Amino acid sequence: MTTNDEILSRLLAQATTELFYDYSFEVEHLGRVCEPARFPEMAGMIGFFGSQLTGTLALAAGENVIRAQAAAVPGVVSATDWVAELSNQLLGRLKHLLLRHSATVSLGIPVAVTGRELEFKSKGDSHSTCHLFRSRCGTVLVWMDVEFSEGFRFQLRPDGEPGPRAGDTVLF
Amino acid sequence: MTTTILVVDDSASVRQQVVVALAGAGFTVEEAEDGMEALEKVRKGRYAAVICDVNMPRMGGLDLLDALRREPAAGFPPILMLTTEGQPEMMRRAKAAGAKGWIVKPFKPHLLVSALEKVTKPSPGSP
């Protein structure tokens, strides 16, 4: 039986790969790790909450990776602003995938964090998951700390109403 | 016809992306960092349309829609939501509050311009 943790990890990897692909900056999922070999220096972080799960997501990389990715996006004003927005967009994609798995979350406001060697730690009784991705400029790390409500299990709802996907335009 | 667009987003990069996308399409763009600042600007200015994020500090996009509905004197320009969100419930709320469309980030510049042209086109019979 697939656990909540496994499902969330798969969706997180999918959302990350698709996000970067849409910006023509491909990343390859290297897998789940306990901790990265090299700690990043820049991260976008955003919280989320809902009746089924609550937590925090971080998208982190070296500043050179964020700058290289941003170089292909007209209008980016700074790496810190952009990494925060990337974490926001990643969580938005994940939310879309979660809707198909009977989970709804509300998004917080993203922030950027910079430092020499950023480490992400679980606050205790929550589940944390860390995934590494390889890009042409270096690794990207996506970390998530999640607390599931007691008894909650993801359930695939293929007939659900997931709403528009990234890039879609709907006029009313 | 006014061709000034107000873009409302807490990310300066997203605001600038919109500026770049609309620069070649004949639109002038003004910026606001959140719904509160946008509300002040709409009260004072006249915009052909507003492009607005949903999740922002102080006042989010759905609350901005509600605030504008409560203030008819401020006017109610066509509003396109530009957001990472795609939750149908949120879209229904935005539509009921008077939004004209919903775009999920990352946006495609030509589709944004096309959507703006549609919502800013004078309706038949309007002065």
Mind explaining what this structure looks like?
The complex is a heterodimer of chains A (about 170) and B (about 130). By secondary structure, chain A is of the alpha+beta class. Helices cover about 30% and strands about 30% of the residues of chain A. In chain A, strand 6 (about 125-135) and strand 7 form a beta hairpin. The longest helix of chain A has 21 residues, at about 80-100. The radius of gyration of chain A is 16 Å and the shape is globular. The model of chain A has no long low-confidence stretch (mean pLDDT about 90). Chain B has about 130 residues and is an alpha/beta fold. In chain B, about 40% of the residues lie in helices and about 20% in strands. Chain B has five helices and five strands, in the order βαβαβαβαβα. Chain B has a five-stranded parallel sheet with strand order 2-1-3-4-5, with helices on both faces. In chain B, helix 3 links the parallel strand 3 and strand 4 (about 80-85). In chain B, helix 2 packs parallel to helix 3. The longest helix of chain B is centred in the first third of the chain and has 12 residues, at about 10-25. Chain B is globular. The mean pLDDT of chain B is about 95. Chains A and B meet through helix 3 and strand 8 of A and helix 1, helix 4, strand 5 and helix 5 of B. Strand 8 of chain A pairs antiparallel with strand 5 of chain B, so a sheet runs across the interface.
